[in-house]
Amino acid sequence: MTTYEHAHGRPVVAMNPHVDRILQRGLVVTYSLASLAGLAATFYTPPSMEDTIGEVGANTWGLFLLFGGMVCLAGVLRRRGTPGDWFGEYVGLWLVIAASAVYALAATATLRHDPGRGAGALLLAVLTTLLIVRWF
């Protein structure tokens, strides 16, 4: 088994190359979709976000998602086969985490007016938690 140093300084064992390729492709799709969502949110802000955090906050949220997704995508594409070589992904990940958390909070804030959004708010909380776990 080969070990590499993780971005946080902890040693990790290298994955099976086939599994690693699947993970990398999945992350490319995920961060591409995050970037596209950010682009769409910047130009076509969801009314629920604009009503909850205002126009400037909603545009900032969209830009966090756009640039965070782009930086994460660049980090994954730049990767050269070692688990520790993901620095770009980790830099952009906090922008995506912040955007996801803000959207989850905004969805939660609308629950008293529309309790039907509870499932969506919880799903966004799950996504935010998964992104935080991805950091580690």
Helix content: over 70%
Shape: globular
What portion of the residues fall into strands of 2 or more residues?
under 5%
Structural class: mainly alpha
Number of strands: 2
Indicate the mean pLDDT.
80
- Please describe the biggest sheet, giving its number of strands, its sense, and whether it closes into a barrel: 2 strands, antiparallel
- The end-to-end distance, rounded to whole angstroms, is 21 Å
Which spans of ≥5 residues are poorly predicted at pLDDT below 50?
none
Secondary-structure element series: EEHHHH
Q: Which value, in Å, is the CA radius of gyration?
A: 17 Å
Order of strands across the widest beta sheet? 1-2
SS field, number of helical segments = 4
Note the main attributes of this structure.
mainly alpha, two-stranded antiparallel sheet, 2 strands, 136 residues, globular, single chain
Q: What does this protein structure show overall?
A:
By secondary structure, the protein is mainly α. It has helices at 17-43, 47-78, 87-109, 118-135, and strands spanning 3-5, 11-13. A two-stranded antiparallel ribbon has the order 1-2. The longest helix is centred in the middle third of the chain and has 32 residues, at 47-78. The protein starts with a strand and ends with a helix.
What is the structure about, briefly put?
This protein has 136 residues and is mainly alpha-helical.
Draw up the topology in text.
Elements (H helix, E strand, L loop, with lengths): L2 E3 L5 E3 L3 H27 L3 H32 L8 H23 L8 H18 L1
Helix pairs in contact: 1-2, 2-3, 3-4
